[in-house]
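**Protein of interest**
===
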Amino acid sequence: MKLKLHLTLLFLFLCVYSSKAQYGYGHYNNFVCYTCDLGIEVGALVSNINGLDTSEKPGFYIGFYNTKEFDDNWAIRFGLGYANLGAKVKEYNTNVVLHTAIVEPISVHYTFRNKIKTFVGMNLGITMLGKNPYNEDSPGMSFFPEGIKMFDFSVFAGTGYKLTDNLDLNLKYDLGLTNINDMENSKDKWKKNWLMLSVAYTFR
């Protein structure tokens, strides 16, 4: 069941992104840069939710991005991704699961010595599917789970190493700024965060 859900979400995401990427390549059109380099990124991550008695939960990430390079040092990046986030709840011996679409409005990248890079940016998260064991009425998996806010905002920073001109290895920490707790009569603040090691390939 879990595998089917993962594959369904991934398929829908790929269809939407590929339909946008194949049109108008070679010029600028409104806010989309069609002259940017397209790339794909996959990674393993560990996530947690501050404000809960939880431990880290492993997950994965896959995303597509566009990169606009201004010179040998500076570049900006934006894209879409999918992350399997959440935390392991000690009390219930189960997981808070957040299947999240990640919208990266922009990140700024700086490369020095032609190999090492640093970057900072921001994300908009959209929880499409999830499991909230704290919701006693519906503790199982559901679309737009009750008790969890649909949208959240986060910032991230990281460093990377360019293995080749196309391939790079990245380590990123993402810090949630939004209280995702939407439980009735609860004043606790839940903020998700995650650490990811990924490999990115840019088509040039």
